[in-house]
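Observation: inputs received (chain + flavin-adenine dinucleotide).
Thought: call the complex predictor directly.
Action: predict_structure
Action Input:
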Amino acid sequence: MAIYKAPVEDTLFLLNDVFHIERFANLPGFADSSPDVVEAILGAAGKFCEDILTPLNRVGDRQGCRRNEDGSVTTPEGFKQAYQLVVDGGWIGISVSPEFGGLGLPIALTQTVNEFMASANMAFAMYPGLSQGAIAALLTHGTAEQKSLYVPKLVTGEWTGTMNLTEAQCGTDLGLIRTRAVRQPDGSYKITGTKMFISAGEHDLAANIVHLVLARIEGAPDGTRGLSLFVVPKVIPNSDGSLGDRNAVSCGSIEEKMGIHGNATCVMNYDGATGWLMAEENHGLQAMFVMMNEARLGVGVQGLALSEVAYQNAAQYAKDRLQGRALTGAKFSEKPADPIIVHPDVRRILMTIRAFNEAARALIMWTAIKGDVARRSDDAKERDIADDHMGLLTPIIKGALTDLGFANAVMAQQVFGGHGYIQEWGMEQFVRDARIPMIYEGANGIQALDLVGRKLGRNGGRAVMAFFGEVQGYVKEQASDAALKPLVEPLGKALGHLQQATMWFMQNAIAKPDNAGAGATDYMHLFGLVALGYMWCQIAAAARRKLAADSSGRMNSKLVTARFFMERMLPETATYLVRIQSGAGSVMELPAEAF
Ligand SMILES: Cc1cc2nc3c(=O)[nH]c(=O)nc-3n(C[C@H](O)[C@H](O)[C@H](O)COP(=O)(O)OP(=O)(O)OC[C@H]3O[C@@H](n4cnc5c(N)ncnc54)[C@H](O)[C@@H]3O)c2cc1C
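Observation:
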């Protein structure tokens, strides 16, 4: 069976030694996050994930979800009990304001708990994860009544949330949505249409499901400008929160799919279901974007989570599996063969994955802290800067981290040879599960276009210029530090590649948008590498400060891994730049019939 150990120590190192979370004590909720409180929370979350969710991962994969004749959906054995423990532990709302029943603690803690849960059992983690997105959207765009009726129940986990965008004819292009909303005399709406691929659309974990549904009010304009967002509960709550009548929304079927079998992916039928408008009429997409952005970061976390658990299993296997001898002579001559960890090619794989994992965790944490500043700071300028960062980094975290998360799951599977391909070790499940984060919440190609087409130019390029300024400032500042030079110099070079690519788009993509489209994914990965490189410099600087006092060897491991990243992963920025600068010519030349 697959193993998992939550990386609590590494996370605490990031929070305390790299990002110095105590510096943010002026933000509401941060003062309550003293190191011992944080350690206790992460320790408990880690234990829950290791002991309860990890063993259920295989069960969920093998059993999947079952739709019953009456349209109800049964989740795999043990999911219900585990979900109750999530409710009892109060895990869903740890970063939600106490006004709505949460603990108000930093978002970085929520993202960490979400990482642990997704590593242990991604299909399960999606149920509470979607509720968090619904909470964010309701808090930003719901009416006072909607907030007080729905948010506290979502925070406790008594009810769960979903997001309903996709229809058969419309995935990326939401302007094609056909689901209709008809205004009723009492101010509510009747919602009619069919949504598909709705994660957690129906299940037996909670008493009610709060669907956030994009639909078009009769007479609204075509395209995305005519979309409105509705809250459509499975069971209509009374004003005191008790459950009233069943609404006309039901699960028509569940998808048979490649992975995340423990999560019910539903076709949802809305047959004149009662819904209530959230946000302004025809401004539904902007409101749904709150949930989508939240979900996109959550999906980036899934990329890291699967890479981490796949790595842990591969590292353990590489220490146990005996095959061949080290190139430099037997290392364990008393054994019939050396463990495969002696082989440079196996180590190349393991180092590549761990160099991603540690920096990706830092990047997510850095961005989560910005998320807190954006929401909680009382300084408007500080909020704007943090918001810029979130907007810029969200497609990178979603797109680059999930592409690499999948690639890493495949590489970790390779460490097992043929044993990775069979079910027994759980590696093929990680590969299957890691595939979907690249697709949902906007396929990764769309994330890249969002980055290049929207985020770069927004507010005159304010966000990207701030990012360049910060990294450039750091490189200059550290240039004289001889110990950090081998890390900072390559970062400076990679940043140069990113700046050249950005300039190239400015000069070549405005008149020829295909140049932007053809280079967008390369740009997203180039940007991702620079951001990860920046994280490695900061991790290494913190590790050096702790090196003398560290007898465990962990800090030295970080320094070696940082060097590996700079020597063997960051140089890929040069290739991305060359690809981007080759433009759209050969990509677009062949006529469609030639394919
Ligand atoms: C397991 C699972 C769970 C899901 N959960 C949910 C959910 O909870 N709620 C929900 O609403 N949806 C959900 N989805 C739907 C998911 O978000 C969509 O599948 C995804 O957004 C892509 O839409 P599509 O499948 O229609 O692909 P399409 O939009 O048809 O895209 C196909 C390909 O073309 C590319 N493409 C499309 N348009 C462009 C363009 N303009 N430029 C460049 N490339 C383009 C895309 O990148 C993609 O690679 C889920 C899907 C799955 C499989």
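Thought: report the result.
Final Answer: The pocket of flavin-adenine dinucleotide is lined by residues 163-166, 171-172, 197-199, 257, 265, 436, 439-443, 445-446, 449 (CB under 6 Å). The mean pLDDT is 97.
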